[in-house]
Amino acid sequence: MATELPGFVELSLQAALVAAAALTLLVSYRVIQGPTVPDRVVGLDTIGTNVVAIAALWAMLSTQSFFVTVSLVLAIIGFISTITVARYVTEGDIIE
């Protein structure tokens, strides 16, 4: 089922992978040095989103559907963790 991607598509996907990885590294600075807890939470959410994007881009590049499943699971875990941390930061408790 492996199909060959056109050259410009493969180059675009590789450029997007590099950009997503670089942005993840830049956002990690905000997570480490963030002046407030919400800044760090937003940074962690951004890192999670970038990891999902990297997994999806890798799935397209390698034509392996397994990484699509990985990206979907990571997106679900990221969404639940973001809601949980946001609720803890705003209300001080997760479950009432």
From TrEMBL:
It comes from the Archaea. It is a multi-pass membrane protein. This is pH regulation protein F. GO terms for cellular component: plasma membrane. It comes from Salinigranum rubrum. It is found in: Cell membrane. Pfam families: MrpF_PhaF. One of its GO terms (molecular function) is sodium:proton antiporter activity. The keyword Hydrolase does not apply. The keyword Cell division does not apply. Keywords: Cell membrane, Membrane, Transmembrane, Transmembrane helix, Transport. InterPro entries: MrpF/PhaF-like. The chain crosses the membrane at residues 12-29, 41-60, 66-89.
